[in-house]
Design a protein that fits this description.
One of its GO terms (molecular function) is DNA binding. This protein has a single domain, classed as Orthogonal Bundle (c-terminal domain of poly(a) binding protein). The protein is mainly α and 122 residues long. The protein contains 7 helices and no strands. It is elongated.
Length: 122
């Protein structure tokens, strides 16, 4: 009972544990993969805009898989991200469907205009 109440306030505890495990995997990478993965993780957190916990967990897990494989194979960084790392990161984020923060803002804007229009008609 208490665990469900806490999770309703803080989010799923298992998701937090999984996120921490995947983040630790990124932190354990050898250089230069660790730095590249950390930069991409930061970018995805700021610009990915994903608010759905399950989608975010899947994305970070896949990010850790990507960089672990690259490190194990010795793949050069530019062979992974290409000439434009931003384009790569954004394409990576777009592969994950889920609710984004902008979706909430779009709905909020639409609702505000609808309310204002109803008031206008009175």
């Amino acid at each position: 009972m208490v665990a469900r109440w806490i999770e309703s306030l803080t989010g799923a505890l298992e998701q937090k544990k999984e996120y921490r495990r995947d983040k630790a995997r990124l932190d354990a990478l050898p250089e230069p993969y660790r730095s590249a993965a950390a930069a991409m993780h930061r970018y995805l957190n700021y610009c990915g805009g994903i608010v759905d916990g399950e989608t975010l967990i899947a994305m970070i897990g896949d990010l850790a898989d990507l960089w672990e494989r690259a490190a194990a194979d010795g793949t050069p960084l530019r062979e992974i991200v290409g000439a434009d790392p931003v384009e790569f990161a954004e394409a990576f984020a777009q592969a994950y469907e889920g609710q984004h923060w902008i979706d909430k803002e779009r709905a909020r804007l639409t609702e505000a205009i609808d309310r204002a229009e109803r008031e206008e008609g009175k």
